[in-house]
Amino acid sequence: MSAVLHIGLIVNPLAGLGGSLALKGSDGEQMRDVIHQLPVEQRQRAHERSLRALRSLDDCMQTVRFTCWAGDMGELTLQQLEFSKQVLGNAGAELTTALDTRMAAEQLYAAGVDIIVFAGGDGTARDICDVVGTRCPVLGIPAGVKMHSGVFAVSPEAAGELLRRLAQGGLVGVGPQQVRDIDEQAFRHGVVRSRFYGELLVPNQGHFLQNTKIAGREDPQLAATDIAVWQVETMKPGHTYLIGPGSTTATIMQELHLPNTLLGVDVVRDGKLLAADADEQRLLQLLAEAPGPAHILVTVIGGQGYIFGRGNQQFSPAVIRAVGLDNITIVAAKAKMAGLAGRPLLVDTNDTQLDKQMCGLRKITSGYDDHVLYRVSTM
Known about the structure:
Layout: E1 5-11, H1 29-36, H2 45-54, E2 64-69, H3 75-78, E3 84-88, H4 98-110, E4 115-120, H5 122-132, E5 138-142, H6 156-167, E6 172-182, H7 184-187, E7 194-205, H8 220-233, E8 240-243, H9 247-255, E9 266-269, E10 272-275, H10 280-289, E11 294-299, E12 306-308, H11 317-323, E13 328-331, H12 334-338, E14 345-347, H13 352-358, E15 360-367, E16 370-377
Parallel strand pairs: 1-2, 1-4, 2-3, 4-5, 8-11, 11-13, 12-14, 13-15, 14-16
Antiparallel strand pairs: 6-7, 6-16, 8-9, 9-10, 15-16
């Protein structure tokens, strides 16, 4: 499987149209009636800003593909570009609704996209938040009138540059950002009433080598300690943790003040060691007996980039499926990730279907509450 960034595109064709009309937004039936009277050529704001963002990817034709919603919710934008694309859904009525956005987000997520990119404002972000939440990375191309949420790039070109860096295998940070919205009716009467609505998982420009403390380079041991402290602090009562081999994961065991099997898998729950150097059958037994959810913590083999299939075959397909793909945490310092020079992380579990399911962008914990997005592939 090639390392291709799979982008899901949603364009809200009504986004931002109320701004030039001094309508303080584009939500509400009255605003839709006004927008309906606009000539088609005046309804191009979101489309044009989407093109500005996506043209930054012109030199990534071989490493980017799109799935989009039909008509002016994405298809018409991509028709002006040369990317590989799949079109879903139906263009529907002349003026789209929030329901169209939610349907598009739901089907793009189901299609297995790596990231959903949308052109819109806070209302569009709310609709996508309702469907996706933090299950999939999302990035907003700013195209609305009001954008109080922290999910938008600072400009269309900035959004394009973030996507370009992801397509090229660069280190891009990721974290939850607030979706906020204001009461448009109150805003039209001069009252700004913004409220927290939810969170989306959003990529942001990484600052590798800029926030480090020692000679301009990351200290590997300090980074491992930061990772360990974060992982231990976020461990949940009653959850079972399968901690894989490696020096980074060994630091987690040290932070727990537990003995560690450097080249094996240890099992921990509520700060206690349940099993040391466990094999596949022991892991399956403990998972069957576990009172709550289970998690796998793995690190990256330096230079090679493997997370499964080299040195940790105890994490068999049966074990991984019993834990669940959503409960896998990958930990690695940014220096180790940068050492891959853009090559993807690799999986080789001897189960091709499972390997394919693990491919795509994954969140990597690289420090204390510090995360980056990085690609997982099979080659």
